[in-house]
Amino acid sequence: MYSSETLLQVNGEERQVTIRHADNLLYVLRERLGLTGAKPGCLNGDCGACTVNVDGYPVKACLVLAMEMVGRTITTIEGLRDTPIQKAFVENFAFQCGYCTPGFIMNCHSLITKVPQADDSTIKDWLESNICRCTGYQEIEEAVKSVLLEQRGT
Amino acid sequence: MISFDFEYHKPASVEEATHLHKSLRELNKRPIYYTGGTEITTLGRLNQVNTGAVIDLKGLPECHTQELISGQLVMGVGLSFTRLLESNIFPLLSQTIKEVADHTARSNITLGGNVCGQIIYREAVLPLLLTDTQAMVAGEAGVSHQPIHQVFNRQIQLKEGEFLVQFKTDEAYLQLPYLSIKKRKQGSIGYPLVTVAALKKDNQIRIAFSGLCSFPFRDQKIEKILNQNGVALEARIEQAIQQIPHPILDDVEGTSEYRKFVLSHTLLDILTVLKGEGHV
């Protein structure tokens, strides 16, 4: 087995971990680092349940090798505390079964941070990266918009 | 999870990458170059790709270049679609790739990965074909520059051990009227029934297709038909569709007859817009 002992920057901490070269980031987060917030769904880059943030951008953790992440800054749902989007998800009932929620929140958190002036078309473009099989899309969109409006002071 | 093991290497120079490929080949590792990696991670999980070593090119500074140098736009193959869209330095390329996969996936999908991919659509190559872009190719013998039409014919045509480093597009092409339209069976995410990209140069429309056949292509015979002045647009389009030089796809996305129907309307939209030289 080809593996390397390396350091990953996860949720503001430097984590020492042995990575099998063929393992994706999702597997290493869940099975090696115990961070089970990112969810396995399709494992094919379609559903977005495994979304984490890498250097501020949303990334599907099933689509990247963990070895690629050396030197990058990774944030998982466990690394968010009392953020406006988490509060907005609760206030807008933006989840039902909750399985897709960590991935959606990570994507929405990046959107709010990267594009504070996002219009409807941009919001739609970003949110289409995630699938909610309970079809709670309306509430999720409302949660995002409520944060954007609050940030803009309107 | 990928069931087979492979070595991961991240060289820091072009020379190191090609030497690494050679030495891994000699060890029967069947190495593959890696930029975005989305096909390797997804197809590897299904055992449709197998390798003993990947060589990640993202450590090469040349693969991240995105700037105008001496009248040419230089784009590294490691640029993600997200970075290309954020800069919008090549508007036709932006318009063509902005609907590939989804927003999050586009931060992983790279220019080089898409052009060299197994996926039949490879839409990023359309603007490169239309602009007669040059490709910088690295191999054991060093680096060479070759026309895109030489390194891409239906699919990438590289010799063993070679990889694409950069694309170089004349700056003049970036100012020309263009239009790219992607038509799907339904929704706004997914594979195309047909993607048509077009550019108008010297009053002649250049046109390239993806999703129509089992590979992307540009065909000068079709361009000649579509540029016949004095012939009604509808007649030109009908004639062009009859002359598609390869079998038209007939699959779950759509039958070949339906694709022809969608294509005829898409061509009409493109020719109508570009006749007026407008960008959309």
Any chance you could write out the topology, listing elements then pairs?
The complex is a heterodimer of chains A (154) and B (280).
Chain A: E1 3-10, E2 13-20, H1 25-32, E3 51-54, E4 57-60, E5 73-75, H2 84-91, H3 101-114, H4 120-127, H5 137-152
Parallel strand pairs in A: 1-5
Antiparallel strand pairs in A: 1-2, 3-4, 3-5
Chain B: E1 7-9, H1 14-26, E2 32-34, H2 38-45, E3 53-56, E4 66-69, E5 72-76, H3 81-87, H4 91-97, H5 111-116, H6 125-130, E6 134-139, E7 142-147, H7 148-151, E8 152-153, E9 155-156, E10 163-170, E11 178-183, E12 194-201, E13 204-210, E14 217-218, H8 220-226, H9 233-242, H10 256-275
Domain count of chain B: 3
Number of domains of chain A: 2
CATH architectural category of the largest domain in chain B: 2-Layer Sandwich
How many strand units of chain B?
Answer: 14
User: What's the overall average pLDDT of chain B, rounded?
Assistant: 95
- How many extended strands of chain A? 5
Alpha-carbon distance between the termini of chain B? 42 Å
Across the major sheet of chain A, the strand order is 2-1-5-3-4
Instruction: Bin the strand percentage of chain B.
Output: 15-25%
Within CATH, the superfamily of the largest domain in chain A carries the name Beta-grasp domain
Quick recap of the structure?
The complex is a heterodimer of chains A (154) and B (280). Chain A has 154 residues and is α+β, with helices and mostly antiparallel strands.
What does this molecule look like?
The complex is a heterodimer of chains A (154) and B (280). Chain A folds into two domains: 3-77, Ubiquitin-like (UB roll), CATH 3.10.20.30; 84-152, Orthogonal Bundle (DNA polymerase, domain 1), CATH 1.10.150.120. Chain A is built from five helices and five strands. In chain A, a hairpin with a 2-residue loop joins strand 3 (51-54) and strand 4. Chain A has 154 residues and is an alpha+beta fold. In chain A, strands 2-1-5-3-4 form a five-stranded mixed beta sheet, with helices on both faces. By secondary structure, chain B is of the alpha+beta class. Chain B has three domains: 7-56, Uridine Diphospho-n-acetylenolpyruvylglucosamine Reductase, domain 2; 63-173, Uridine Diphospho-n-acetylenolpyruvylglucosamine Reductase, domain 3 (2-Layer Sandwich); 176-275, Enolase-like, domain 1 (2-Layer Sandwich), CATH 3.30.390. Chain B is built from ten helices and 14 strands. Chain B has a five-stranded antiparallel beta sheet. In chain B, strands 11-12-13-14 form a four-stranded antiparallel beta sheet. In chain B, strands 1-3-2 form a three-stranded parallel beta sheet, covered by helices on one side. In chain B, strand 13 (204-210) and strand 14 (217-218) form a beta hairpin.
